[in-house]
Amino acid sequence: MGERGALLEGLRAYRLIAAMWVRSSMTYRTSFAVTVLGNLMVTGLDFVAILLMFSQVDTLGGWSLPEIALLYGLSATAFGIADLVLGSMDVLGGRIRDGSFDTLLVRPAPVLAQVGADHFALRRLGRITQGALVLGWALVSAGIDWTPAKVLLVPVMLISGAAIFSAVFVAGAAFQILAQDAAEVQNAFTYGGTTLLQYPPTVFGKDLVRGVTFMLPLAFVNWVPAAYVLGRPYPIDLPGWTAFASPLVAAACCALAGLAWRAGLRSYRSTGS
């Protein structure tokens, strides 16, 4: 089977497994609705913390509330999409410990699709909804001087950001295979990463900004392109074209994550060995 055939088979397996979990979650519709609402409210506490900060200050790192809300909305929505699609990757360590990961290896479906779709949870739509609401308010309130390029860049940021976070989920799962768990290490880069990006780069040291730009390029989720949309200079010198580099960065991250996943599977040793 070629690469294209393997990809189509993986997507088909993912769709079937996810649909099974969706049907299961929709059995009790009231419970599902309450869970989604609760998820929306809990994830919204992060933005409430930002609002509380701005009750005491006018700017944070030189950025106004609508500008930071733009960063928050982009990060939360992009991460929410990745979390919906691949959020179950962080429990891979538990599967390895209890031996159930071995059963995935012998099933006639790509392992990545099985792990990614496992316990697919529509309740995570609450995070996406909450982030999108904040993003919508920010786009209206930030006083952006709109151009066709800036209008196009907003959906590009969301799609590319979701792909970058998805790559981090997959790479973290590959690391869990090597380390036989380390879910908290993965969470530090996924959940920790989205929290970091909710604040302007000007409040962090330049060494951290460089690391998040060049080593683990989470800055291309929102910091770099959002600086262009808002007409702000980026804290470190970057060429102007990098504002539009998020799709290229996302493609590179996904390719590297795929290689890491394959390496992790090849190195896996069953708990019974």
Automatic annotation (TrEMBL):
**Is Protease set as a keyword in this record?**
no
Q: Which UniProt keywords apply?
A: Membrane, Transmembrane, Transmembrane helix
Q: Which InterPro entries match?
A: ABC-2_transporter-like
For this protein, the parts annotated as crossing the membrane are 32-57, 69-87, 128-146, 152-175, 208-229, 241-261
Coiled-coil annotation reads: none
Asked if the Swiss-Prot or TrEMBL record annotates the protein with the keyword Transmembrane, the reply is yes
Cited Pfam families: ABC2_membrane_6
What name has this protein been given in UniProt?
A: ABC-2 family transporter protein
